Amino acid sequence: MTVSGKDSPQDVRASVSDAGKFIHHHTEFPTTWPSQVIDGAISAIGKSASWLWVVVTGVIIYAVVGRYAFGQGSVMLEEVQWHLAGAGWLLGLGYTLVTDDHVRVDVIHERLSLRGQAWIELFGLVFLLLPFLGLAVYEMVPYAFSSWQQGETSQAPAGLPYRWILKSVLALSFVLLIIAALSRLLKVTALLFGFPKPIRVESGNNKKEDAS
């Protein structure tokens, strides 16, 4: 397609709209009933965790006003900020996976057929993501347990106690990611091998039953 200076604004807008058809962010795999249950639970956790950002914003405003208006800084409030921000971010990781809203660098992946994309997802999940997450949980659970046993607190004066809580959230986030990855894996196997039986295929705003 060539663009000349004689094109009207409507033609330019149409060209931009047409270009959007070639941008595919979501890989639409069939849904299975275990995936529906898992995705619902992970999504609920992620959406609930998103409210932590509202709390973080409130704490930041309170801390800034206290520091600059009343000259009262607080190490504890500073640690509360990054503790809550870290927890909100970590608990939202599983949500991004089940909704396929995580960052993708898939120049090759997006050019393949749906089955080709499914094969890449299968190998990526089985040989890359799940082994990494398994190793992370293996390391993080003793890490959090050791912190609880030692009664670990902040090293800063007047900092927060119970450092094990944040470390436990770190371990929990990897567990949730494993569950989300398994849900994704079930969708892939449903497409490639028909197991579990697909119950629905989503395409944009349309939903159609899979009778196979």
The SSE string, one letter per element, is HHHHHHHEE
Alpha carbon gyration radius: 23 Å
Into which percent range does the helicity of residues fall?
Answer: 55-70%
Structural class comes to: mainly alpha
Task: Provide the residue-averaged pLDDT.
Answer: 84
Strand content: under 5%
Major sheet characteristics: 2 strands, antiparallel
Please state the overall shape, judged from the principal axes of the Cα atoms: elongated
Quantity of strands, as a count: 2
Distance between the termini: 41 Å
Number of helices: 7
Please mark out the parts with pLDDT under 50 across 5 or more consecutive residues, or reply none: 1-5, 11-24, 201-212
Strand order of the largest sheet: 1-2
Function: Part of the tripartite ATP-independent periplasmic (TRAP) transport system.
Domain Tripartite ATP-independent periplasmic transporters DctQ component: 57-188
InterPro entries: DctQ, TRAP_DctQ
Subunit structure: The complex comprises the extracytoplasmic solute receptor protein and the two transmembrane proteins.
Description:
The chain contains 7 helices and 2 strands; from the N terminus they run αααααααββ. The chain has 212 residues and is mainly alpha-helical. A hairpin with a 2-residue loop joins strand 1 (200-203) and strand 2 (206-209). Helix 6 (114-150) runs antiparallel to helix 7 (163-193). Belongs to the TRAP transporter small permease family. It is a multi-pass membrane protein.
Question: Which tags fit this structure?
Answer:
212 residues; mainly alpha; two-stranded antiparallel sheet; 66% helix; 4% strand; disordered C terminus; transport; transmembrane helix
